[in-house]
Amino acid sequence: MTFNLIEIERVAPQIAVVRMKRDDKLNALNDELIHGLTDAAQTLREDASVKVVVLTGGMRAFSAGADIGTFDSIRKDPDVNRVRRATQWGVRMAESWESLPAITIAAVEGGAVGGGFGLALACDWRVFARNAYGYVPEVQLGLNYGWGTLQRLSALAGPARAKWISILCRKHGAEALASWNIVEQLAEPGQALESALVLAREVAALPALAAQIVKQSVNAHSTALARASSHADMDHMLLCLTDAEGQRARADFTATIGNRSKR
């Protein structure tokens, strides 16, 4: 089964693997991929036979995060109401994965960057290859961290660590993320998906109803105030897009990427 830039494979009667298929752009989350991920989650939500969903990207990257090319088009669009609606697509994508009845596992090779890291945090568990990393560059680009991700990160790692990761914009390896309660399991390089599938088979052997009720109850507690505190995070991002210092930071970043591609 395929959606926009998404492939769903039923690897066992009760286990589905969802693969992001924008490998040439390191699975950067453009509108098409965001819609594909949302549609895939909705399809799996309606299939009660699915107990476990494993979400993965490519060997080079889980996801390079939100496609920075979309920021200029957002900033230049004169219809503010249309822009506000469009920025909610990523919010709905993350929420659709977080609220799936099935247990969800992110299998991460390479980088989980920005919105890609946020997508992994919307899953129940994360399996990282030992050489994989998480990286939140938003503040370095003059942006806040959206899609309700700060609240999820704070619930997992605590408020001080969430600020440490999100403000300092450092790359953090899998072992550090595991020590901060963000990654549940480490795998050898190239084996994140297989390791996640071993875990998925363990979950699939358990009674689904009990597991899903436990998930729902834990999520209800840990995210009780998340919507209240994150409801305006994409409006905050629109505000950040108007900041001159942030505009210069993004221009410098785009120029750096362009120079690298010419070498």
Task: Describe what you observe in this structure.
A 7-stranded mixed sheet has the order 1-2-3-4-6-8-11, with helices on both faces. The radius of gyration is 18 Å and the shape is globular. Helix 1 links the parallel strand 3 and strand 4 (52-56). With 263 residues, the protein is of the alpha/beta class. The chain has 12 helices and 11 strands.
End-to-end C-alpha gap: 38 Å
In terms of per-residue confidence, which ranges show pLDDT below 50 for 5 or more consecutive residues?
none
Query: Topology as H/E string?
Result: EEEHEEHHEEHEEHHEHEHHHHH
Q: What is the C-alpha radius of gyration, as a whole number of Å?
A: 18 Å
- Number of discrete helical segments: 12
What is the structure about, briefly put?
This protein has helices at residues 31-45, 69-76, 80-98, 115-121, 149-157, 159-168, 174-179, 192-204, 208-222, 226-230, 233-241, 244-262, and strands spanning 2-3, 6-12, 15-20, 52-56, 61-63, 103-108, 111-113, 125-129, 133-135, 171-173, 185-187. By secondary structure, the protein is an alpha/beta fold. The strands form two sheets. It has a seven-stranded mixed beta sheet, sandwiched between helices.
